[in-house]
Design goal:
It is built from three helices and seven strands. It is of the alpha+beta class. It has one domain: Diphtheria Toxin, domain 1 (Alpha-Beta Complex). The longest helix has 13 residues, at 93-105.
Length: 152
Amino acid sequence: MKVFRLSKQKYARDLNGKGAARFGNRWNSKGTEMIYTAESRALAMAEVAVHLTLANIPSDYMMIELEIPDTIKINTLQSDKLPLDWNDHPQGIHTQKIGDDFIDDGNTCVLKVPSAVVKGDFNFLINPHHKDLKKIKIISITDFPFDKRIFK
């Protein structure tokens, strides 16, 4: 399966989750390393774009395409198991605990979660400490200029 992520150029080859750990996000608390990916390029862009404005559009973003082999088990988090406010902004600690537990348990390398940005789409969280991480390969890294019309 192919998944996608946007990253600044200097971090494009890093699959370590340190960026997510610096600040914490919807699915991880500060200090918990996790790699965020999306099921499509468009979703990867949307997940980043919601945090940007016309004044701070980055010029050095890269689209990273990753291949998750079929041999890697992917757990799916069911939406009906989430609290009603799971997709609120700013995020609550409930979803961060789910992600932190996924990393701490270490049972699977990938967790499929619903997108809070695009209803009906999914993100794939990758545990950078799982033994199967070495099987996940970067297929391509390409320039990704943001279309300024998105931010008008």
